[in-house]
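Supplementary Methods, section 5.1.

A reviewer requested that the exact input to the structure prediction be made available. We therefore reproduce it here, unchanged from the version used in the analyses.
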Amino acid sequence: MIYPIVIYGDEVLRKPCEPLSPDTAAETKTLIENMFLTLGEAGGVGLAAPQIGRSLRLFIIDCTPWAEDDPTCADYKRAFINPEIYERSTETKIYSEGCLSFPGLYADVKRSLSIRMHYLDTDFQPHDEEFTGLKAWVIQHEYDHIEGIVFTDRVSPLRRNLLKGKLLNLAKGKYKCAYKTK
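The structure derived from this sequence is encoded token-by-token as follows.
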């Protein structure tokens, strides 16, 4: 099932999400499969549960499109359940970010070059892992979603002020994109 993507202005994008319980493993696996279908349809590299209207501590990434720039991204698809970033490098980089919940909007965002994170996989098995480069970047973006933070919260106040009109149009439903939205 392909879900419609929630667009900026919906309150679900601003709520910290609830953890998933292992007793929901079967439903969670189905949800993850459908999120990957949705991500593929929308042409993104990451999707968090709030972006499909579900306030759950869950996101997926598929860095495969970046394999040409970073060979470690080849076939790199993963789901992260109940993740907790507990360490961020002080070394940062500014990336131009976009988001499926903000069609047509891009802004420069400063993020840590590496992170350490606890998370559960699709079998609810625990992991503690370090992520660097492009993977760390997309994970931080999706992690923000489950914390109720959107990427425009991380741009400079001046840039955010310049984006006000575009954000207002998104919230009013004035946008065009090639994937299903709500």
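Residues 25-42 form the longest helix (18 residues). These observations are discussed further in the main text.
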